[in-house]
Design goal:
The protein has 175 residues and is mainly alpha-helical. The protein has helices at residues 3-24, 39-50, 57-71, 77-96, 101-125, 133-158, 165-174.
Length: 175
């Protein structure tokens, strides 16, 4: 594993830990509020589409399993769906690389919608408690709306940029 991959993986893990910490903070006392965006999902999708070489599938799964354990969610279901979604995005990254950001945003919106729908279907099939559809739709809209901000934040704060064709060729030469 080269140095860039290791640094990228460590940065991703640190960013996910910060997002999980912020999610656990009590930001409002007592009042029910609207569901917020899934910033971790936005971050992992942005990372996979910009630097697919830096995130191994195991790192993604472990980050979301830890999140499931701490947030007391059904263990392993969301990490499995996130893994399928990120790998689908990783397979298409080369074709999506030159597309404008609006096209990427639309594709990510469809992908996140499919992931959330799959999660809801599996919850229903296994007779798990299913959140209200209105809340899920609001969560979806908030997540999609947050994606450009997460991409901008990752670019500015973490230096996350798209992989260049030269770097792709160097990766292929190393393998």
């Amino acid at each position: 594993m080269n140095r860039q991959v290791l640094i990228g993986t460590m940065l991703f893990c640190a960013a996910m830990a910060v997002l999980l910490f912020l999610r656990l903070l009590p930001l409002s006392a007592g009042a029910a509020r609207l569901p917020g965006p899934d910033l971790g999902l936005c971050l992992v999708l942005a990372w996979v589409l910009r630097r697919p070489d830096q995130l191994a599938a195991l790192v993604i799964v472990l980050a979301f399993v830890v999140q499931d354990i701490i947030l007391l969610n059904p263990l392993g279901l969301w990490p499995a769906i996130v893994l399928m979604g990120t790998e689908a995005a990783r397979l298409r990254e080369a074709r999506w690389r030159d597309a404008p950001f609006m096209v990427e945003w639309l594709r990510i919106a469809v992908l996140i919608g499919a992931m959330m729908l799959g999660y809801r279907i599996v919850q229903g099939l296994f007779m798990m408690p299913v959140p209200a559809l209105g809340l899920v739709i609001l969560h979806y809209i908030a997540t999609i709306a947050a994606y450009p901000l997460v991409v901008l934040g990752a670019r500015v704060l973490l230096g996350l940029r798209r992989i260049t064709p030269v770097e792709v060729e160097q990766m292929r030469a190393v393998r």
